[in-house]
TrEMBL record:
The keyword Transmembrane helix applies. It is a multi-pass membrane protein. One of its GO terms (cellular component) is plasma membrane. InterPro entries: LrgA/CidA. Its main location: membrane. It is found in: Cell membrane. Keywords: Cell membrane, Membrane, Transmembrane, Transmembrane helix. The keyword Secreted does not apply. This is Holin-like protein CidA.
Length: 124
């Protein structure tokens, strides 16, 4: 039960932080989405050790595990636009495949870099 409450509090904290940054970004008329800024700020706070990983880890892991559920509404929305799929479907497919490959490649490069960096730091 204690772990469940910890996850809920951490997820709520992440959501509130994202909403706050989103609100600020909207008020100062930034072109970058607030959710992206929140992600960057969380990363910076973690790197500067202002926020400890343990404070966010359980909630972030739960969000990652539930990530597939967040894509279901967009998938249902696509089905509603059948004529768009018939006219632009191939181009959309190419865009999806290409962007997925870019994300996978960048994820691989960043993961390899971070693992190498962490391994070097642990060996010192």
């Amino acid at each position: 039960m204690r772990g469940f409450i910890k996850v809920i509090v951490q997820v709520l904290g992440l959501v509130l932080f994202s909403c706050l940054v989103n609100y600020i970004a909207h008020k100062i008329n930034l072109k970058i989405p607030g959710s992206i800024l929140a992600l960057i700020l969380v990363f910076i706070l973690l790197k500067l050790k202002i926020v400890r990983l343990e404070w966010l880890e359980a909630g972030a892991n739960w969000l990652l595990a539930a990530l597939l559920l967040f894509f279901i509404p967009s998938s249902v929305g696509i089905v509603q636009y059948g004529e768009l799929l018939t006219t632009e479907g191939f181009r959309l497919l190419i865009d999806i495949v290409f962007s997925t490959l870019i994300v996978m490649t960048l994820t691989d490069i960043i993961t390899e870099f971070l693992m190498k960096h962490r391994k070097e730091a642990n060996s010192k």
